[in-house]
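User: Thanks for the earlier help. One more: GerMN domain-containing protein. Can you show the sequence and predicted structure together?

Assistant: Of course, both are below.
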Amino acid sequence: MIAVLTLLVLALAGCAGIPTGGAVGQVQNSPSSGSDNLNIGYSEQPPAPDADQRGIVVGFLNAATGVGNNFQVARKYLTSAAEASWKSGQRTVVYSESPEIVTSGNSGAVSANLKVQSIVDSTGVRTPSAPGAVESLKFNLVKVAGEWRIDSLPDGIALATNLFTDLFKHYALYFYDPGFSYLVPDVRWLPGKGDSVAISIVKALLDGPANYLRGAVASAFPDSIRLESPTVPIENSIATVDISAKPLLDASPSTKLQMQTQLLATLQGGLNTVTGVRMRAGSDQIVLGSDPQPADKLKPPAVSGRLIGISNNDLAYLDGNVIGPIAGVASVAQLEPSNPAQSYRLFADGGAVAFLNATGSSLYTIAPGQTVVKPVSATKLSTPSFSPSNWVWTAAGDGSGNVYASHPGGQGTNQNPVVVLNIDWLKGRTVNSFRISRDGTRALVVSTANGQSRVQLTGILRQDTTAESAPRDLTDPSTIYLSNTAISEGYWAGESSFVLYAPGAKEVTPIDVELTQDGAQMPTLTGLQQLSVGNSITELYALDAKGTLYKSSAGSWAELPTKGISDLAFAG
């Protein structure tokens, strides 16, 4: 049996329009004049004369493709009161298969039952739905001048999968870590094509980060700043952005440069037609003293190819195919180490290492000039994960909601500080994996409850903006993946890319989950027990049940001659 994690992606087949035939619930017996012409996809049509209740709801749902014209056709299906109150941009329900339309005689009540794949909120943040999820959209219809019209309806629109992926595209908005050292992506799904896309991107950027990143990332743009022009023209690959004059003119030269860098990184990444950005305060161009910093200079540094692992029941490095001791670290074999982690700096260069004991109930850390310290004891701790600022994190898997952060070596006079965070949204859940992003602002959390696995992103709130500031809380998370299959580990494989898997005795297929594009299954490996992921999904090591080590190569696994090392981990 192949243990495959089923990915909720937006590439599943959907219908272009909603058929008017097929099984439904209780349907009116009266004829539906014009209903047979409502399976129209992109051909938005106004209400057909004498259409029945079902035909009106089907026609309205089919007209939800009018994202570029403010749903002018869809609004014709509404009463004037419903049109005035309907908030079309509140959310987008993405569904597969044809909806089941259920009417209830002549009462005016109609339901559209949808098999939901995901929901995109008003800011463009997409959340996958649980496998098999169904949502019922409730409509109430009344007669206006003898014709049925929708008088009340839920806010937002519903789109079949293929229509959604055509009308909406993903874009990475870029913000900064609190110290303005790194750019941090915030992936959104936004509607529109051509010039309208640039407007949507800039407005979303100026509105600030998604809820799960608020407080964890920074923006060079103050909250009061707004886009002043209804367009963002692009001429000769230069985008012109008209921004509220006063906050822009009041900003310091360095802040203006940070604004331009943030705009350029966001527009360049989302639109391949943009190579530069011109900022204007009203109609006056802002002259910068120097060029904005290139986006690639603000990305976290790549991790080295040297991995930490366990060999002969002790900590060791794997460099190429050579296993060697960690210089400066005495033997810890008596502690039965497992699941080691290394900071971004090598130990010899002032870094630190961490590991669990064999039962996973104790976290140990070692810093230069110090003996082994046990900062955390708890039930079923997750594999340690370092942030760039040298804090090492782990989470309890006992349902307590406790997350721990320790700083090996200490900060000033504070030796080996430990912060305990009690996180409400993790209470009652088994945390299997807790890993910090390489920009230090986010954590990837894999947890299970009631047989369902949930993969989430949460922002890390700090005490202040200094590089080694202590954490103080986690934000309410954004869910990026749900599965009824167990997931044991999640790894960062880029700024918005993750690898998920669960070990197994037979064939195991890890999953590559991308926030900025559809996910994909990765090469299958029989008896996969452990994975380690470097800078991208092309840098993978795997260990099978026989202790054989593999490295990813050209879409498959290449067996390595190295023997006798396990629990491998890249920096972080």
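User: Great, one quick takeaway?

Assistant: The mean pLDDT is 88.
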